[in-house]
Amino acid sequence: MDEVLKLLHSKYGDIFEIWxxxxxxxxxxxxxxxxxxxxxxxxxxxxxxxxxxxxxEYGLVDSGVFNNNDIHGSWKFNRMVFSNxxxxxxxxxxxxxxxxxxxxxxxxxxRRIGIIMGEKDVNKSLIENDEVINLPNWMxxxxxxxxxxxxxxxxxxxxxxxxxxxxxxxxxETESNSIITSTQTxxxxxxxxxxxxxxxxxxxxxxxxxxRRYLDNKEYLYGKxxxxxxxxxREINDTPxxxxxRNDILTSFIIANTDRDTHKEKYIEKYKDVVMRPMxxxxxxxxxxxxxxxxxxxxxxxxxxxxxxxAHHPHVLTRLRQELxxxxxxxxxxxxxxxxxxxxxxxxxxxxxxxxxxxxxSSNIRxxxxxxxxxxxxxxxxxxxxxxxxxxxxxxxxxxxxxxxNPDRFYNYMTNDKxxxxxxxxxxGKDQNxxxxxxxxxxxxxxxxxxxxxxxxxxGRKLAMIELKCLVTMIYRKYDVELIDMNAPLKTKSTFIxxxxxxxxxxxxxx
Length: 511
What we know:
A hairpin with a 2-residue loop joins strand 5 and strand 6. The two termini are 42 Å apart. The chain is of the alpha+beta class and 511 residues long. Helix 14 crosses helix 17. The strands form four sheets. A four-stranded mixed sheet has the order 1-2-7-4, covered by helices on one side. A three-stranded mixed sheet has the order 3-11-8. It has a two-stranded antiparallel ribbon with strand order 5-6. Its cofactor is heme. This is 20226_t:CDS:1. It comes from Cetraspora pellucida.
């Protein structure tokens, strides 16, 4: 999809139309067209995301947040509960703690295998296997375990199981692995319910069989999640009112708008147009699935892209190391704190610059709920707009040398006191309004969109940045990362997201 849009953008310019079967989409490639669409007002006309209300039986119409098109009902309620769960201050501290623990576990797995050069008893047959030294395979399992811990509050087992399998050790299927596997299958099935009508799904023989298997998996997934939810409800009921509860997303979902919710009064005024009530089990299932899907591939692939770009830009790596050394000095084992992350301005700039050059999500879809004007045309209600962020992040009229990796374009912005009144990642949404040539405002606002825009902005953006900063810090303050083939191009695959397919690597202790 990404390459097709790039080709069409170069041929037809900043606005053109494409057809998905019988459905037309207007592709917008200029930042100025985003100004209305990215408004954060609840009165925005551009909250709806999908042009069909297909797939209700699959949870794609009024369930969760990402796929929810019921903007005046369940979407608004789910968004409120989801956002509040992620904004609890203690969750940031725990997320950092869990990331540190998980990186150490991944290091232990790499030592067992011999990915870290210089370790004794290296298993040469494993090291010579490209699958074993392929970074995306590790990062996907890392993010699976991470999001399971954040969402459910229980340690996942993807990294450990994968390592045991490499050594021929049979693993007993764990609840976390079965849920993650089922969630992956669920995500693969979404396109069948988005692209095919109900008639095709129910009556075309080959597709009907595939859809039936995806629906069976959906029932299994909802059933397993419901079991976990019911166990947690019993645990909460058995916990005295004066004792602290678990600090994870699931617990926050369950206690939302109940007497156990200490933040309830804080949000009554903010969400006065939303009915305050507890969440039902099925609603919690939909939100948990959104957390699992949104918290895995995006972070895993972006980290792989960061590793690739740092390997090919040693001057940027040197600057990163200088920043790390200024904070941690020679102590490569000191525990990282949230304050440390706040001070890692250049590290954050690298993350954003790589996301600009190689976005994991380079396009998005919005619909207008009412007739409206964009780029001089009046569009009827329910016009589909495909926002091609990948066509905006490298514009010469917005960025100096747009194809060059230059973290300073973000670093200089972040260290300017006039525009940096917070800690650098508290409000990542502000970065959608930057561009090196943006002094005059609306002409190139929204030239960088890392986590989406408007009311549909990713609610987990702060946790994602904590996870990425911690990963970069723990790996690069301790190790030199070497790519097996420095001449190999970055191997990606682009569908709805751009994934890193292969990045062969080894580590050695930093000199």
